[in-house]
Amino acid sequence: MTGGVTPDDRALVVDIAQTQPMPLAGGFRCEAGELLALVGPSGAGKTSMLRVLAGLMRPASGRVRVGSETWCDSAAHVFLPPQRRHVGLVFQNYALMPHLDAVHNVALALLHLGRPQRLARARHWLDHVQLTAQQQARRPADLSGGQQQRVAVARALAREPRLLLLDEPFSAVDQMSRRSLYRLLADLRRDLHIPIVLVTHDLQEARLLADRLVVMDGGQVLQQGPPDTIHRAPRNARVADLVGIQNRLRGQWIGPGPETGRGQLRWVVEGGDPGAGPVLCVRDKGKLPAGQRVTWVIPGDAITLLDHAPDRPAPGEWAVQVTDARYLGEITLATLAVERLPGAELTLTLAGPQRRTLQPGARLGVRLDLDLVHVMPLRS
Amino acid sequence: MDWQALILSLELAAVTLAVLLPMGLMLARWLAYTAFAGKAWIEALVVLPLVLPPTVLGYYLLVSMGANSPIGRWAGEHLGLQLTFNFAGLVLASVIFNIPFMVQPVQRAFEAIPRQLGEAAAVSGLSAWQTFWRIELPLAWPGILSAMVLTFVHTLGEFGVVLMVGGSIPGETRTIAIAIYDRVQAFDLASADRMALLLLLLSLGAVAASFFASARLAVRR
Hints:
CATH architecture of chain B: Orthogonal Bundle
Number of helices of chain A: 9
CATH topology of chain B: MetI-like fold
Distance between the termini of chain B: 48 Å
CATH class of the largest domain in chain A: Alpha Beta
Helix content of chain A: 10-25%
Shape of chain B: globular
Structural class of chain A: alpha+beta
Order of helices and strands of chain A: EEEHEEEEHHHHEHEHEEHHEEEEEEEEEE
CATH superfamily of the largest domain in chain A: P-loop containing nucleotide triphosphate hydrolases
Radius of gyration of chain B: 20 Å
CATH architecture of the largest domain in chain A: 3-Layer(aba) Sandwich
Order of helices and strands of chain B: HHHHHHHHHH
Number of strands of chain A: 21
Radius of gyration of chain A: 25 Å
Mean pLDDT of chain A: 90
Oligomer: heterodimer
Structural class of chain B: mainly alpha
CATH superfamily of chain B: MetI-like
């Protein structure tokens, strides 16, 4: 999902380096109109990064710039407090004021205006997020999770922010409200044309909504890029793990050949005979030494299910046996044992009529598109 | 019925409250929001008047504020004030004696406000003062109200400290609690009876009213 964003002078540029009190390091850029998702497990530093952007946490060293404004520059001893940043932040648990109704919650962000104007603007923003007049007069405790979420979004927008930050905004709302909030977010992106940074641990959500992913772990930015790029070519096994690539397999790099730009990879099963596996002819970027133990990944898109086991398998084709098939509503998650290599397994998610063939015990075939295999050195 | 003593007690309670409220709010908020080494000692000091026998507290106040003590001399020379056996001394003693009654409930009330609300206020552009006024104070209000009532009622019924620091000077330091004691000593049980009942009803009414008000004011979260 790329919104045809062109770089301009309203982009967010971040570069943070800190080791104390907790490690936080890495940089990224988010263009105006672009939605960037910070993803990673809990404790990865996503929320800390967001707090740095909002001005709620002062990094030991680093820079934050939005457009021509410098919000933080440790070298120049610049650190603007949140009050002086034009930033909208939607908190994970909304952080609405329990003693104020929705209108007055939003009006809180508009104290620079006179009272009548302030309330009128607050109502305008609440109309914008589709809250009815009755709902606008209610306190947070009398609103549903999804409605509270909308009030929090309206409060963030009322600041007319130059940067919108969303901290796990959908984690506490039900599936129905989530879908309508996704739509709201899509509308906002179109209308606002500012950088939007979303923190989420839900990868599906990140892929669905974001133009760019920034993968974090242990306070470090590990990789960034468009979701499909990261999915196809994770930088290392940890990133592959974090972005939820199902087929992470072991292997040994034999070396380049037989033609230029190609290399040979032996598929190895952990604990098995290292010489027993089949040799795959994959793309080679010339970075790996011969003999290197590697992790390789293959995206789901590159696995085609064949409705029978091939008698004379072509390169990249294998006979498999279905060992497990889990029916997950619209999709089925299947585990396939590769007959040629005992212990080797592939995981496949499948939708559509073909998944009816996925009965445990069934003998089928798979064809792997070896051009999409991505090889990474195994970290020792 | 010693009306003079009742009025003196009400005056003492009102003045104590007026002096203690701003100080107590600041101290309670500071304790609620700040973490530092040795905080437990400060908190222990705040609670001390609650656990110390009033006579012990009164004794130290008498010794430290007496005309021959450094504090007493300083107050005498610079403020023209005598701090023992008069109303000013009673106020000072009463303020110190009531610190836990004011600070503890208010500190708990501030602590109960989620930190995120302050951060949300800052991100919404509110200054520290605006946040205090528009967010913290309304949310802590039930706690503050009950602290005020407790302080007031507790001052009305104060006995040991008042006797040690103030004695029983009519119109100056003879509060209603002291007056009851004096009446009992003089075997005037009828007067003591009336005054004790009045104090009982006044205290019960005030505390009950504050509980009702707190329940009504409490904001659902």
